[in-house]
Design a protein that fits this description.
Elements: E1 20-26, H1 31-35, E2 47-48, E3 58-59, E4 64-67, E5 70-73, E6 76-79, E7 87-90, E8 92-93, H2 107-114, H3 131-138, E9 154-155, H4 162-168, E10 172-174, H5 185-194, H6 224-230, E11 235-239, E12 256-258, H7 263-270, E13 283-286, H8 309-324, E14 332-338, H9 388-397, E15 426-429, E16 437-439
Parallel strand pairs: 1-13, 1-14, 2-3, 8-9, 10-16, 11-12, 11-13
Antiparallel strand pairs: 4-5, 6-7, 10-15, 14-15
Length: 449
């Protein structure tokens, strides 16, 4: 796979010539988990921080020193389960390509990962000190015997992910790209399409309500799909088993293209080799095979633990290689990112959401879902569809929040949607990309809208 990255980024410059945007969003890995040791690749183009804002060959990754063929990394979290009391668990290289367990990345737990002792104070102070203790209590089996039991502190390197590292060393990446919500998949994927989770905090509510004409949630402020349709901009969702756009367009067949476990063959119909004609839409969402149950794990390639990171990397490599060897390449850009951190450690404090100081983007507080599922009642805070679990999660972080009140209100002292989540990988793969370039500008999933 690494050899297939042997292509030069030219930075053509005029973004008005981009006619095809392709979004590939995988699952559940932090920046440090995948690219924390990117600046230490031997003979690589990057160096480690601290990074000056104008130094675009600098990567803000883990703090490591090379010792022969291995790295010694100094980032750490406290472990409360050690037999002799508190000990420091340092970042270490993971040996398992199918990481287990699925670490805690819920709304309440993620805030505690950011600030273990004061999880409601993360906007002011996020030392990212709670990853080990949160996951010891909820997910990972840990007897305090060794680092390798604390999987949350683990990282992968260029030998584990050669294709991804090849892309990162060829095209443009960001070391300040954050998930949009300090929490799990569904709220973050909702932000990717609607710039809001309309109050939702959990993935338990991902099944859309059956509202006409096609089913799916109806955010009060609409979605990027509505804007694309309204402006006559073409889009499709190339899906493996479940369309990510289905949370808003649950049964709309006109935009869905099943990959049928043949991603290369199907995508090549729209992106044929030269001198063929590119028929990709203006916007494409490419969805890997999501693991919705234990039965899906053999086919799963979304990189969500415990599925194989190698299988996910292979899927993404197929998508990238089809496009870059096609008639579409010259006017396309592929954005590759991850929905959220998946409970894996990252050392950078989640940034403030760039929304002018407002606590949320749409007036909807955490756990008080509101939408267009059954207006006008569903437009009121707390009366949106499928919101019961979000109310419970909201109260878990903010005990003074009473979602059972006749007209519930959310305390201003509690965390809101004014802070982004942890950093996740982001790569812009395109002939328009600046080659071997690291952006230090704060961005999140809404930056792609």
């Amino acid at each position: 796979m690494l050899a297939s990255v042997a292509i030069t980024a030219h930075a053509k410059g005029d973004l008005r010539k981009v006619n095809h945007v392709i979004i590939v969003m995988q699952e559940n890995h932090s920046f440090d988990n995948y690219f924390g040791v990117l600046p230490y690749v031997p003979r690589g183009p990057y160096h480690a921080g601290p990074c000056a804002r104008g130094d675009h060959r600098c990567v803000d990754g883990l703090a490591c020193e090379r010792e022969g063929s291995s790295l010694d990394c100094r980032n750490w979290n406290l472990d409360a389960d050690a037999p002799s009391g508190m000990k420091r668990v340092r970042s270490f290289k993971l040996a398992n390509y199918c990481p287990e367990p699925d670490l805690n990345h819920g709304w309440a737990a993620s805030h505690q990962e950011a600030n273990f002792n004061h999880p409601t104070n993360t906007l002011r102070d996020s030392p990212n000190d709670g990853f080990v203790r949160v996951n010891d209590a909820t997910e990972q089996i840990d007897t305090g015997e060794s680092n390798t039991e604390d999987e949350t502190m683990g990282y992968y390197d260029d030998g584990d992910l050669p294709f991804y590292y090849g892309l990162a060393q060829t095209f443009a990446i960001s070391d300040r790209y954050f998930s949009s919500v300090i929490g799990p998949t569904f709220p973050n994927r909702a932000y990717t399409l609607a710039a809001t989770s309309f109050g939702h905090l959990t993935t338990a509510e991902i099944i859309p309500p059956p509202s006409p004409p096609f089913g799916g949630y109806r955010p009060i402020t609409g979605t990027i799909l509505d804007l694309l349709d309204g402006d006559g901009v073409s889009w499709k969702d190339f899906l493996s088993n479940v369309p990510s756009t289905g949370i808003f367009r649950g049964a709309d067949p006109t935009h869905l293209v099943p990959l049928d476990d043949r991603p290369v063959a199907v995508l090549s119909l729209f992106a044929p080799p030269k001198p063929g004609v590119c028929t990709l839409p203006a916007v494409s969402f490419v969805d890997s095979f999501f693991g919705l149950s234990a039965a899906d794990i053999p086919l799963e390639n979304d990189e969500h633990p415990p599925s194989s990171i190698k299988k996910g990397e292979s899927f993404v490599s197929q998508i990238v290689n089809v496009v870059r060897n096609s008639a579409c390449w010259d006017d396309s850009v592929i954005f590759i990112t991850y929905d959220e951190h998946g409970g894996f450690y990252d050392h950078v404090a989640p940034a403030r959401a760039p929304q002018g100081g407002a606590p949320n983007p749409d007036g909807i507080d955490p756990g008080l879902c509101a939408d267009e599922s059954a207006p006008p009642l569903s437009e009121q805070p707390g009366f949106g569809a499928n919101c019961a679990v979000s109310k419970i999660e909201g109260k878990a972080l903010c005990p003074e929040f009473d979602p059972t009140a006749p007209f519930p209100t959310y305390p201003a002292s509690c965390p809101n949607f004014d802070q982004l989540g942890f950093r996740v990988p982001f790569m812009a793969v395109s002939p328009f990309s600046k080659p071997q370039y690291v952006s230090h500008v704060v961005a999140d999933h809404t930056s792609m809208l």
